[in-house]
Structure formats: C-alpha cells, structure tokens
Design a protein that fits this description.
Layout (H helix, E strand, L loop, with lengths): L6 E4 L8 H5 L1 E4 L14 H11 L8 H14 L5 E5 L5 E13 L9 E12 L5 H6 L6 E3 L4 H10 L15 H4 L3 H27 L2 H14 L3 E4 L10 E4 L9 E7 L4 E2 L1 H8 L6 E7 L2 E2 L1 H9 L3 E4 L1 H10 L6 H6 L19
Parallel strand pairs: 1-3, 9-11, 10-12, 11-13
Antiparallel strand pairs: 1-6, 2-5, 3-4, 4-5, 7-8, 8-9
Length: 351
C-alpha cells in the first residue's frame, strides 16, 4: 500500500448530461488542439501548442490553460480519486482514475480527451458541507481537492466502495492555483450562484415536511398567476396539487402537479404515474429538488402535456417570484438581492 493517492476535481459542461457517468470517464475539451497525447510531456510544449491553436488567446491565460491540460494528461495517476460535480443533475460523483487516456475522433464531441474512471458513488449536493461544495465550485477545469478531500472520500467509503490507498496531502503548487483575472472573477460569480442554489434547496429540505413542501409549491404557483389547491394527503393518486387559470377550476387547461421533496434522481415510473392521471385538457407538472433519470427526460420530450422541473429550475422560479412570497416562506428562505459580474455573457463555453 503506497501513500500516493491524490484527490482531483473535474468540471465539465452541463451538455455532457450523464454520458460520462454511463461511459465511465471524465473529459476535457480543447479539440482544436487535436490529440493531446502527441504533445511533449512538459508545460512549455503545452503552452506552445495552445498559442498555435488559439492565436487570440490572452497571454496571461496561456500558462493557466497549459497547466490545466498538463495536469489532466500527466499528473493524474492511476488510483487517484476524482470528484466531478455534475451541472446536469446537481450530483457529486466520486470515482477512481484507471490510468487510461483516450482521444475520441468525433467532430460532434466537444470533450474529446478522456480519462477512464471507475465510479464509486453518486451523491446529492446537500449531503456535503457548504465549505466542501465551495471548494469544488472552482471555475478551473482541473484542480486538486485539498481541504475537504477526506469528506468526499468518507462519503464514497460509506457507500461501500473500497478505497485501497490512504490519502496523501497534496502539496501547494502555485502553478496549480494561479488564474487570470477574468477566470477568478467568473469563479467567484459562479460560486455565489451555486451557493444560493444550495442554500435554498437545503432550507426546503430541512424546514419543510413533504406535505408542507406541497403547500409551498402551491403558493409559488399562485405567485405565478395560477389558482392552486393541495389535494388531501390520502389517496391523491400521485397528484399533490391541482392548478388552473380559471378561478373556479372548471375550465381547461388544468395542471396536475406531483411534488417530490428529494434531491435524488426521480425515475421514469414515478413520472408515468402522474401521466396516468391525466384526462382531456389536463397537463402534468412534476417538481422535485433533485434531477430526473434519462428515461423521464426523454418522456418529457415526447409528451407535450408533461413538464419536469428540477431543483435548479425550481430555485430560478423562487428567485423570480421571491418578492411575492408570503412572509412565512421568505422567513424560511431568507435572501438578499446582490449583483455579481456576468462575465459568462458573450464569453465562449469553458474548454
């Protein structure tokens, strides 16, 4: 048993969906540079390759980018641990690197360079401390997890995944931490937004029961202009709220709402149950604090009368209609409006 295990954090865009989880990998972009395995294994070579592939790249950003690519290709070792916070479903995924790098020759794939990963566990964000979530909220694509590595490893270990090697304290590396000014500001902005989302979801989870959550959703729908009522707790048939635009509730469209106060992934059968209650002129709305399995998402795409709202989308609705919420709900979710730089507007997608 060697004492050389390092914990890494990886960010990928939300558009990758659950493909990295199903495919057993994490990946980075920079596809204009081609196969990164062909670049000499030193940072200077990576700097030169970036400058050639991206001639308009800011000079100050090139060393940062080169460091990111070099770490992904040559510093990550077999057996190291990876923490991947997924933007698509707000899950924190913990895995073990297998030491295999591949390059995918596919023009449609924005993340062609992959490291093979054995996934050890997938956990809702609310199962981790806020400070741990801050650490993995960095805007940097590839980074070392230092302060809260044990928290993530303990979670994976408790889930039944064996961790064969002890944790090594990652050395401080200035090259590892340096960012250009725009990236640092964008990182702070993204962390502020993610922290607000995490705060709202945790408050809804800890301060409301399942039935109280249904009442909150009904009130939010009323703030949006609907008339809504919560169904009796017994024999609701999978329908928690009836909402409509007609004040008396006689005229379509009628919206049947199912609420799940959970941060885990909702499977397709749960959504099928809601669809089975719909009659003519009725629509189905499913709301949870987590995400939806691929089968449920595909079902939504094929059913015009179905809408799925996940935790992140629900938080956006809360932000939009926060001023209309009743005082009792604003007390449960105390928020203050702030303004942060929108550097992502007009900026290309992260590599």
């Amino acid at each position: 048993m060697t004492n050389d295990l390092t914990v890494w954090g990886i960010h990928m865009g939300a558009h990758v969906s659950d493909h990295p989880i199903e495919g057993g990998y994490v990946a980075i972009g920079w596809k204009e540079m081609g196969d990164l395995r062909k670049i000499a294994p030193n940072r200077e070579a990576f700097k030169g390759a970036i400058a050639k592939a991206y001639p308009d790249r800011k000079a100050g950003a090139i060393p940062v980018d080169a460091g990111t690519l070099f770490k992904f290709m040559h510093e990550i070792k077999s057996g190291d641990i990876v923490i991947y916070p997924s933007k698509a479903d707000r899950m924190v995924n913990v895995g073990r690197f297998k030491g295999e790098v591949s390059y995918i020759e596919d023009d449609t794939d924005d993340y062609p360079t992959r490291q093979k990963v054995e996934w050890l566990g997938h956990f809702p964000r609310d199962e981790f401390s806020q400070s741990a979530l801050h650490e993995i909220g960095s805007f940097i694509t590839v980074f070392r997890v230092r302060k809260h590595a044990e928290e993530f490893l303990n979670k994976a270990s408790l889930s039944g995944a064996p961790l064969a090697q002890p944790l090594k304290q990652a050395p401080t590396d200035n090259q590892d931490e340096t960012t250009d000014d725009d990236s640092a500001t964008l990182s702070a902005t993204m962390q502020a937004e993610a922290s607000a989302d995490d705060f709202v979801i945790k408050r809804l989870m800890t301060e409301l029961s399942g039935h109280q959550f249904e009442g909150f959703v009904a009130h939010l729908l009323e703030c949006m202009g609907y008339t809504a009522r919560v169904t009796p707790k017994s024999a609701d048939g999978g329908v928690d709220i009836i909402a409509h635009m007609d004040p008396l509730g006689f005229q379509p469209p009628i919206v049947k709402v199912q609420c799940k106060r959970t941060t885990s992934q909702t499977p397709r059968p749960d959504v099928d149950q809601l669809l089975g209650t719909l009659g003519d002129g009725e629509y189905g709305l499913f709301i949870n604090l987590g995400s939806y399995a691929r089968g449920a998402v595909e079902l939504e795409r094929n059913r015009a009368k179905l809408r799925l709202i996940n935790g992140e989308q629900l938080v956006e609705l809360i932000f939009e209609h926060y001023a209309k919420l009743a005082p009792r709900y604003r007390a449960i979710i105390p928020l203050k409006q702030i303004f942060v730089p929108d550097l992502a507007q007009g900026q290309g997608a992260a590599q």
